[in-house]
Every structure is written in C-alpha cells, then in structure tokens.
Write a structure and sequence with these properties.
Blueprint: E1 4-9, H1 17-24, H2 40-48, E2 58-60, E3 62-67, E4 70-75, E5 78-80, H3 91-99, E6 107-110, E7 123-124, H4 130-150, E8 155-161, H5 163-171, E9 175-185, H6 192-197, H7 201-215, E10 220-225, H8 231-249, H9 257-266, E11 271-279, E12 285-296, E13 300-308, H10 315-331, E14 335-337, E15 350-361, H11 364-390
Parallel strand pairs: 6-8, 13-14
Antiparallel strand pairs: 1-3, 2-5, 3-4, 4-7, 5-6, 8-15, 9-14, 9-15, 10-11, 11-12, 12-13
Helix pairs in contact: 2-9
Keywords: Transferase
GO molecular function, one term: transferase activity
InterPro entries: Acyl_CoA_acyltransferase (IPR016181), FemAB-like (IPR007434)
Length: about 400
C-alpha cells in the first residue's frame, strides 16, 4: 500500500469542489443530495462571506489525505480560539483549564461551523480497499495528534459524527461523547392529520389549537425556492434573523446576508425560504414579519435560522415545526431536523436521537478527568433519552 500523506489547507477553495463533494458523497454518489452542510459550496460560502475566518475565531485548516498524488480523503478542520458556534459544549472544560492557569485555546475542531447537524466529517474515496481505508483512518488520527502536540493546541474535537465514524475514532483511542437532539420521523404518513391520528387525544387537540390560533390571523405562510427569492425577501429574512438573535443573545448572529445570498447562487436546489407575511385589506401581501431557512437532502429536511419581527402566539411552532412536518409528508422525506435542543419538541412528536462526538486531550491529567466525565455523562444521557422517549405523545403500543 502506498504511504498516506496528510496536508492542511487554509482555504477550501483551493480544493476542487467536484473532488471535495465526490469524497463527501455517500455510497450512492449523490453528494449534492446527501448532506447540504458538508458540501464544498456551503463551507466555501462561510469563508467567502468572512463568517469563518481568523477574526471570527475559526481559522480554516482543512485536512487532506493523499495516496501518492491522489486525494483520497478530506476533513473540514478549524483552529478555534473560543467554543462558540459548536453546540457540543465544552465550556466547563475550558473553565477548569483557566482555574488551573492552563490554556485551553487554541484547540482544533472538525465540524460545520454554527451548524449542529450530524453528517460525515471524513469524506473518503470509495475505491480504497479495506486495508487502505484503515490506513487512512490511522493516518488522520496520527496527524491530528501530531498537529495538536507540535502546534500547541490543547485538544482536538470531531463533532456531530455518524456512528460509524465515531467508532473509527474511538477504536484509535479518542474519547467518545454522547448527546441528544429531537428529530421528527416520517412513519409513512399520508397527511398531517394522519400524523396527528397516531397521537393521544389530548396532544392531538393541543396541536390543533396551536395551528388554529395562527390560522385565524390570516397570515400568508409559504415556502419559496431559493432561486426565486428576491433581493427584498433576502434582506427581510436577514433582518428577521439578526433581530431575533440580538434579542436572544445580544449580538446579530454568526451569519450575514452575504453568506445566505452566496448559498442561493451556489446550491439553490437544496434551499427553501419560508416567509410569514401579513395581508392588507385587499388580501395582498403587506409585509414580512417572520421567516426561516430550510435545507433539503434526498431524505432529510433541516430547519434553520428562524427570526421574527413581531411576537405572535404559536407562530414559532407553526413556522418551524408544523410547516416542516407537512413539507416532509408531502415530499416523502424521512427525517425533519428542526435544530438543536428543545424538550418542548417531544410533545409535538419529535423523537430523541443519539448525537456523537470524539475528543482527544493533550494534558494527561485533564484527559483522565474528561474521560471519567464522558463515561458519567453517557450514562446520564442514556437515561435522559429513555425518559424523553416515554414522554412521546403517541398512543400506547405505537
């Protein structure tokens, strides 16, 4: 077998988009239809819009594995000077380092910035034989360890991994960590009423009341293909996003209008904009009061970047949950990922799922302590998932 060589690249645009997407493709080879967030176009938009750069604390250094002159694997990778925008929380680890006057930052993170979505973090050539693939995995792990030591990084973290990739890293000695999110699953529903019919009567009635209260307002709620969104609509969406972020977090959000518009140009087939509009006395559109951006794959719908300019009771549930569920049923999509966290999703039919990440810590003492923590946390999360599953609103026996 040829030796595997690892390089680190500061700009994703220096890697051909077709090569990156081919390596990130699933076995069907449909890279554009799998996970929109690991596409070259998505990551490149983050960099070209300056949402991801050294100034924002995300310095790109993407990992490329070569066999001879051929790229055989890629991995998004960033040097981080903080822990914002990751959604696998390690703030307590950083605080423990600080109390002991040890630097936790910079650290290395393989993730999609600001995007808590599970997906492949290592895109690998399918033509590799089993032994060659194992060699690549070992080379990636070894190179991350070497970079961590030589570059003065406290740790490396690979976030929101599919289970098989988590196992690859765990088998090579890294610490695995378990978390959870709540996703809606399409169990062969033919309509929204078909979905509600599976619920117990009280929960079914609650959801119908929520939707009725919004419907009585006479709002126009609709999806638009990204290729059809006007400049005014993009600006309105960005304004909704920024204002809601400012109210919640005190800043205008991690992403900017240039990023959203770049996606609309480079990957419009996977983007839908949901608009909530008021109507005037003649029934014509008056103004946009809320919006959300949705991403699609062959099997999944992803709801992202909700924002509202007016407080309307139950509108968030309608625009961010129920509209997405209806879209999945109508288009035959299997899973609806409406964002991170949110126990309130359980009563609306979103099921708890496992979330995986892997971590390696340079400091021996802290590594032992964090390993002990991850074991305890895993037991707690497992119990939590069981309890949340018991709280699902479906009829007994379903």
């Amino acid at each position: 077998m040829s030796e595997i060589r690892i390089e680190f690249n500061p700009e994703i645009t220096s890697i051909p988009a077709d090569e990156w997407n081919a390596l990130m493709a699933d076995k069907s080879g449909k890279s554009a239809g799998v996970n929109p967030f690991t596409r070259h176009e998505y990551l490149a938009a983050l960099e070209s819009s300056a949402c991801v750069c050294t100034k924002t604390g995300w310095t790109p250094m993407h990992l490329i594995a070569y066999q001879g002159d051929r790229r055989v694997a890629v991995m998004p990778l960033y040097a981080k000077t903080h822990s914002y925008g990751e959604y696998i929380f390690d703030w307590a680890w950083a605080e423990a380092y600080e109390r002991n006057q040890i630097d936790y930052y910079p650290k290395l993170v393989s993730a999609v910035p600001f995007t808590p979505v599970t997906g492949s973090r290592v895109g690998m050539c399918e033509e590799l034989k089993e032994g060659e693939a194992a060699q690549v995995w070992s080379a990636i792990t070894s190179s991350l360890l070497e970079l961590m030591q030589l570059g003065g990084y406290s740790s490396w973290h690979v976030l929101f991994l599919p289970p098989d990739e988590c196992e690859q890293f765990s088998n090579r000695g890294s610490l695995d960590r378990l978390g959870t999110q709540f996703h809606w699953q399409n169990h062969g529903y033919n309509s929204f009423d078909d979905f509600l019919a599976r619920m117990n009567s009280r929960k079914r009635k609650d959801i119908r009341k929520e939707r009725s209260r919004v419907a009585q307002l006479g709002l126009n709620i609709r999806f638009i293909d990204a290729s059809e969104v006007t400049e005014t609509q993009w600006q309105a969406f960005s304004h909704c996003y920024q204002m809601t972020y400012a109210k919640r977090s005190g800043h205008h959000g991690y992403l900017n209008l240039a990023f959203f518009k770049a996606l609309a140009v480079s990957m419009p087939e996977q983007i839908k904009l949901l608009l909530v509009e008021t109507k005037d006395e003649e029934g014509q559109t008056a103004k946009i009061i809320a919006s959300a951006l949705y991403f699609c794959s062959d099997t999944h719908l992803y709801g992202r970047y909700w924002g509202a300019l007016e407080a309307v009771e139950d509108l968030h549930f309608e625009a961010c949950y129920y509209q997405g569920i209806e879209y999945c049923i109508q288009h035959g999509l299997q899973t609806f990922d409406a964002g991170a966290q949110g126990e309130h999703k359980v009563s609306r039919g979103f099921e708890p799922i496992d979330i995986h990440s892997n971590h390696e810590i340079a400091h021996p003492g802290f590594r032992d302590a964090i390993e002990h923590f991850t074991h305890q946390e895993k037991a707690q999360v497992t119990c939590y998932i069981k309890e949340m599953t018991k709280g699902l609103p479906f009829k007994s026996g379903d």
